Amino acid sequence: MLEATSHAASQPTADTERLRAVFEAQRANRWNLSRSTAAERIARLKRLREAIVSRRAELADAIHADFRKPAVEVDLTELHPTLEELNHTVRHLKSWMKPKRVGTPMLLAGSSSHVRYEARGTVLLLSPWNYPFNLLVSPLVAAIAAGNAVICKPSEKTPNTSRFLARLVKDVFPENEVALFEGGAETAEALLELPFDHIFFTGNTRIGRKVMEAAAKHLASVTLELGGKSPVIVDETADLAAAAERLCWGKFINGGQTCVAPDYVFVHASKERAFLDAFKAAITRFYGGTEQERQASPDLTRLVDPVAWRRVKDLIDRSVAAGATLEVGGEADGPSRYIAPTVLSGVTAENPVMEGEIFGPVLPVLTFQSREEVYAHIRAGGKPLALYVFSQDKRAVEDIFQNTTSGGAVVNNVLVHLANPNLPFGGVGTSGLGNYHGHYGFKTFSHERAVMVQWMKSLASVFFPPYRGKAQELASRATRLLE
Questions:
Q1: Strand 111-119 vs strand 100-102: parallel, antiparallel, or unpaired?
Q2: Cis check: omega of the bond before 361, within 30 degrees of 0
Q3: Is 448 among the residues known to form the active site?
Q4: Buried b (16+ CB within 10 A) or exposed e, 388-407
Q5: For the chain, which domains are there?
Q6: Where are the alpha helices (DSSP H) in 261-305?
Q7: Model pLDDT for residues 96-138, shown as the tens digit of each residue
Q8: Is 382 helix (H, G, I), strand (E, B) or coil?
Q9: What pLDDT does residue 469 have?
Q10: Catalytic residue among 259, 272, 327, 357
Q11: pLDDT tens per residue, range 268-278
Q12: Residue 259 designated active-site
């Protein structure tokens, strides 16, 4: 079962007959969509883009109402990447859809081979609350580009944005192409009972396992965009001022509620104090030098709900009680769901703040003497969604990549790999299954169909039974050529 949340009482309840009716309408229309031309799909995407651009202010208001996200962050993290994905897809879709010729072995001479990209069919998108617009619309763009029918289910934790998305989808698409259902866990569970061809889920690892179990009932393919503790390594050659400033931005943007947020920092022991001083200076520049200034800052997103606020507040308290030093922050206000940008030093692997993904404005700082210590720690946990390295030593960076794994990685910056539609975005192991963005998203929502065309007499006919004489001799020769 998917878990209910504190927002569920205000959400529409699942109407299973209505869900199934829309699903069946989409299933009946799937062949029309899968046969659609590049021009027809591009027209759908352009209608979506026009509707988004015309409602930019309405979107910003909705997200601000949900968790006080600044308008600049809405532009940078919700609108810009989504419009970039749309524009990139529109530019390249015609090329992506073309069958791709591939080579054919000599033994199969007289034939040609290619790969066709076909729609998967009916797709379910289950999106999260932390980037409620981007993380629903970006995969939707890819699913439409690949010729699928889509049902979307946004998070109930951001109800204002969910209502905005419901209006947007209804105004742009007929239900037998794209539909959206609001609701809580009950709605998600009802949708997961339907035999979709593909399920795309963004959320935490625990719920991702449940989604995969549900998909197994119908043998539906899945994409899981999950999370985890994304580590940062700051070595002795790093530009500490630049590292501190970029990490401060990447950690506290969206209130720390980002799946690829820097979760914790390993800094070389010789640079710990200098790094901490630089980081605290960055907090002062960004959000103010006093607690009053920081709490009044319009640039700090709030925690999404009281449950999230209490979890992060308790995490800080337990971590300090366990021996961590509060370098800055720690203040909290329940009614406004505010938690100050917080930095903890003196953290060990056993500290409560290292138990799971933080998903809040708290940065633990650990120290290391040798990279092997860092490798051992990273390998002991789940495979992270992202890994960040600050170093001027190219050999050290390569050594880090050779000895760790992650969904993505960035050197001397954070988060920015998400903004490049030419890179795949996705996890590995416990941080996810599959990827998307740009061409990778188109392929995620497509079935790659292998096709071979015999256009002249087949040489393989010499191997037809009975297996004696020439057939036996030629088969033996052909095999020896590969030895």
A1: antiparallel
A2: no
A3: no
A4: bbbbeeeebbeebeeebebb
A5: 8-226+435-447 (3.40.605.10), 230-426 (3.40.309.10)
A6: 272-287, 291-296
A7: 999 999 999 888 888 999 999 999 999 999 999 999 999 999 9
A8: coil
A9: 76
A10: 259
A11: 999 999 999 99
A12: yes
